[in-house]
Amino acid sequence: MREILISEILNKSKEYILAHPEIKLSSYQKKKLSKMETLIKKGFPLAYVLSYKWFYGYKIQVNKNVLIPRPETETLVDLAISWSSLNKPKTIIDIGTGSGAIIVSLKRNIKTKTQFYASDISKKALAVAKQNAKGLNIHFKHGNLCSPFSKILKKNPDKVLITANLPYLYPKQLLEKSIQKEPRLALIGGKKGFEKIEQLLKQISKLKLTNSLILLEINYDQAKKLSSVIHKLIPQAKTTIHKDLSLWDRIVEIRIR
Ligand SMILES: C[S@@+](CC[C@H](N)C(=O)[O-])C[C@H]1O[C@@H](n2cnc3c(N)ncnc32)[C@H](O)[C@@H]1O
């Protein structure tokens, strides 16, 4: 851990630091290192201490107001990019965008004539997402789930891609030490765990989407229950469950013809 922090302070690779044990830090650098080590001891995740996390090959700025993007979510981005390359969506919307990791990765990889949107209920999270999306043409909206986009989607219901990594943990999972410092709003999906996802599906079922795809990240044990919710709410949709790299059920894909 020390090598990572020193490499950050000196802007050198970890390998360089390991190969040069003779390096001396200035008193300013020593102070900085000691502050960082104190935060780590207090249980702050490395990404918060460094203020960034690599996601899909991009350096994403993070702070305590956003969830630290997880590698599992890269599976969702892969699926979104491959569907987009074949289907050329007119509109892409990322719900619960947090740091903006998903929408920024999509915008950087999808070169079709597409409008890019993202939303979050947390204004503080949106501020971070906007920072990460600087120079990219992404429109951010504040509000509950799909509501900020109801007008846009009523007007343009064809070829829409919706991505959402909403909170999906159960309250008891909050006891896990690794997530103690992340925002509750980004983690807990109500008693059932998938209440926000269900609410989003209800909103989507009222839209008249055609030739569209919805990609939702879920908890490892929610696929069966959510599939039956989807079957009830959007009976015309075709649902597929994708596993993450650790082989847990992780992404629900909903195709609407
Ligand atoms: C699990 S985090 C995911 C963040 C980001 N999409 C990612 O994959 O790293 C969930 C995000 O959903 C947001 N959120 C929670 N409830 C919401 C709601 N009702 N409407 C919109 N966003 C919501 C949280 O503020 C948080 O930023």
Explain the overall architecture:
The termini are far apart. With about 260 residues, the chain is α/β, with parallel strands linked by helices. The chain contains eleven helices and nine strands. It is elongated. It folds into two domains: about 1-60, Helicase, Ruva Protein, domain 3 (Orthogonal Bundle), CATH 1.10.8.10; about 75-255, Rossmann fold, CATH 3.40.50.150. The chain has a seven-stranded mixed beta sheet with strand order 5-4-3-6-7-9-8, with helices on both faces. The protein has a two-stranded antiparallel ribbon with strand order 1-2. The structure holds S-adenosylmethionine. S-adenosylmethionine binds near residues 73, 99, 101, 119 and 122.
